Amino acid sequence: MSAYRLPHEKGFHVSWDQLHRDARALAWRLDGQGPGEGGVWTAIVAVTRGGMAPAMIVARELDIRVVDTISVKSYDHQAQREAEILKLPSRVLMGTGMGILLIDDLVDSGKTLELVREAYPDAHFATIYAKPKGRPMVNTFITEVSQDTWIFFPWDMALQYVEPYRGT
Questions:
Q1: 17 catalytically annotated
Q2: Which residues are bridge partners to 141 per DSSP?
């Protein structure tokens, strides 16, 4: 039986529990850092699809009730492609992005966030995970991983039996 090989050198598996802990840590780091009185943020915009779960957790932790999405496609399965905006958040809400938290799960090459930053230059960009090439595009993140690490998020995984290392 041949073993399935990862498409990248390193794989980092993130459980729902770990994602929840890291998203809460992101919220704590962002608390009181907004430009409004008392460091309050106006709204959260999740970069779909990966930013939706972290954005929900951050919104809950910081008691932010206004949540919107921006839909950007930059991957086909595990192959990165040219980033393209498919859906914009409310124009009335966004302006230049001042006071808005833009949240994604990961900044990889930075191309997705670079495209979004062009549209909203004053927004605060936050991710849970950051790779070195994309770090300049993000204002706040929790964990840095190497560029050759592929992150397996819980919404991409299913539980299944794994053969013991030494066989049966």
A1: no
A2: 127
pLDDT at 65: 96
Q: Which residue has the tokens 């980033």?
A: 83
Amino acid identity, residue 24? R
How many C-beta atoms surround the C-beta of residue 129 within 10 A?
Answer: 25
Q: Which of 22, 31, 76, 105 is catalytic?
A: 105
- Confidence check: pLDDT of 151 > 90: yes
pLDDT classification of 9: cutoffs 50, 70, 90? low
- Which amino acid type is present at position 32? G
Query: What residues pair up with 93 in beta bridges, in sequence order?
Result: none
Give the contacts of 12 (CB within 8 A, at least 6 positions apart): 145, 149, 150, 151, 152
Q: Is residue 63 annotated as a catalytic residue, yes or no?
A: no
* Residues recorded for the chain: 168
Among 108, 122, 148, 156, the active-site one is: 108
> For residue 77, is pLDDT > 60?
no
- Does the annotation mark 105 as catalytic? yes
State what percent of residues in the chain have pLDDT above 70: 89
Q: Is 163 helix (H, G, I), strand (E, B) or coil?
A: coil
The yes-or-no verdict on residue 133 having pLDDT over 80 is yes
Q: Which residues of 81-94 are buried (b: 16+ CB within 10 A; e: fewer)?
A: eebeeeebbeeeeb
